[in-house]
Amino acid sequence: MSTFMPKKETLERSWQHVDADGKVLGRLASHVAQVLMGKLKVTYAPHVDTGDFVIVTNAGKVRLSGKKADKKIYQRFSGYPGGRKETPLKKFQAAKPEQVVFLAVKRMIPNSRLGRQMLRKLKVYAGAEHPHQAQNPKELKVEA
Description:
The chain is α/β, with parallel strands linked by helices. Helix 1 links the parallel strand 1 and strand 2. The protein has a 4-stranded parallel beta sheet, covered by helices on one side. A two-stranded antiparallel ribbon has the order 3-4. Helix 1 packs across helix 4 and helix 3 packs across helix 4. The radius of gyration is 17 Å and the shape is globular.
């Protein structure tokens, strides 16, 4: 017996659709990250991108547990002295709701070339409409 190694040519990718309306951000992001990495498939291998494409809609209606809306702060740094910027989650979510979901998923994926390849399969939209109807995405169930 030999160990099965998935090959790039034999992979079958499908499209999954998630409606983020009323879902908790962390639980949604962890489930989406697992689908992007392919961990829910039988053919999973850590060195091959075996995941599916994921479309997340209604990112603006995602829910936060606890007091995160008031206390969580997003930081970025320009590299210059005094170049640290802080943005509260509530303000960041009002300005860029799709970016909040994208960053939550990005931080749950490996920080490598393979992780960047996995992230290209994530499509996040603030509203209910998306331009990927032709791919016939399957509905992905995520617990609230």
